Amino acid sequence: GFFALLANKAEKLFGAKKLLIGLIILSTLGYLLLGTFQTIWGITFILIFYLMRGISGTVFEDYINKLITSDIRSTVLSIKSLGMRLAFCLIGPVVGWFRDTYSLSIALYVSGLIILIFGILSLSSLKKYRVI
User: What span, in angstroms and rounded, lies between the C-alpha atoms of 91 and 114?
Assistant: First the structure.
């Protein structure tokens, strides 16, 4: 909740494009740092995820409310929610396999790589359709 309160200030400070790029970079960095530092100090990197979740949730909801007309907004929000859950269902077992087969560090690195790839694909789509 605390980080969600900062979302609008962060968006005004950085702008939409820089904020989205920052969310991708920090999310990726969070996974890479957790994979590298598996000590009690690694817990501090979990704060990165709370920061990203608080800011991204608020910002994305605001973007949807601004960009989508009210007659289809609830459908778009439902599809967004379904897509996030579907992505977790598909990616979770892959990351689990890396954890079982290799190590937790490798699984966290793979998670960071997946976030980076999907983030870049999302940004390129937003740019292609002139949303950002």
Answer: 9
Structure tokens at 7: 């979302």
Burial of 71 (0-12, 13-18, 19+ CB in 10 A): exposed
- Average pLDDT for 84-101: 95
User: What local confidence, expressed as pLDDT, does residue 101 receive?
Assistant: 97
- The C-alpha angle 100, 102, 107, rounded to 5 degrees, equals 80
Number of Cβ within 10 Å of residue 70's Cβ equals 7
pLDDT single digits (tens) 31-44: 999 999 888 877 88
R_g of the chain computed on alpha carbons = 16
Supply the angle between the helices 16-36 and 104-128 in degrees, to the nearest 10.
Answer: 170
Closest CA to 109 of 94, 90, 87: 94
